[in-house]
Input
Amino acid sequence: MIIEIDFNSDEAIYVQLCNQIILGIATSQFREGEQLPSVRQLAETIGINMHTVNKAYSILQQDGFVKIDRRRGAIIAIDIDKLRALNEAKSELAVVLARAMCKGIGRDDIHTLVDQIYDHYEG
Amino acid sequence: MIIEIDFNSDEAIYVQLCNQIILGIATSQFREGEQLPSVRQLAETIGINMHTVNKAYSILQQDGFVKIDRRRGAIIAIDIDKLRALNEAKSELAVVLARAMCKGIGRDDIHTLVDQIYDHYEG
DNA sequence: CATATGTTATACTAAATATATCACAAACTT
DNA sequence: AAGTTTGTGATATATTTAGTATAACATATG
Output
C-alpha cells in the first residue's frame, strides 16, 4: 500500500499515518494478520524519523488496530469492542454533523454521503 | 448558552470553544443575528485568556459561522457554501467511517446514529 | 469624555511535534 | 556462534503550537 504524507498539512505526521493505515484496513488493502513495514523501513521510505512511525504504531495498538510483536513487528489485529466503537463514532459524528447542519446540509445529504463512502470501501 | 470547557481534555481550549458554539448553532441555542459574548466577557466567565477566545472567534469567522463587527462583537452569521461544506463533510466522514468499519460497525448502524443525532438537533 | 468593542503587538511559559543518536534485549538468519 | 533485524528505551535538541500576561490602539456607543 502506498502511504502519502502531506508535509504542508496542519495535521501531525503521526496522525496522517494512523488515518492512512486505518483507511487501508477499511479498504482491504491491509488484512487481518498482515504485517506492516518495520518502523525503520517505513520511516526510511517516507523520509521521516523512526520514532514518528513508532508513535503512530503505538497509537494504532492502543486503539486496537494492530498488535505489536517483537519478532515480526506490527501486525494487523482488530480488537472489536463494538459498544465502545459505537460511542466513539457517535461523539465524532456529532461534531461533523453539527457543522454540516449549520451549513444547510440535511439528513438525506448525509445518508447519501455515508452510502457513497461505504460503497467505496466495500466495493 | 452554557459553555463548558474540559481543561483535562487533549483537545485545545479554542477547539472546544469552536465546537461548542457550532453545536449551539445546530441546536438553535444560538440563532442567526444573535450576539455572542465579547471576548473579554466570555474569557472571564470561563476563566481563560482573552486571546484564546479571540482565536476561537476568528476561526469561526474564517469558517463562515459568525461575522465580527467592531461595534457589536461576534454575531452569528452563517455563510452557506453548500458544495464546499459537502466536500468537507465527506472527507471528515471518510475518516470516522473507516474507523467504524474496521470495528465491525455496518452502514445501517451509521444511518441509525445519523438519525439519532439529527433528531436530537432538530427535536 | 468615558466606556466597551475588536485588534495588534510583545514577551513569556509550557507542551506537543519531530528529529538525531545511542544503546539494549529478543528473535531470526546464516 | 556471529551477525542482522526487530521493537523499545533513553537522552538531547530544534521547532511549532497553545495559552497566558500586559499593554496599547482605533472605533463606536453612551
In short: Chain B touches chain A through 42 residues (CB under 8 Å). Residues 53 and 72 of chain B are 16 Å apart (CA to CA). Residues 12-14, 48-52, 55, 70-72 of chain B lie near DNA strand D (CB under 10 Å from a C1').
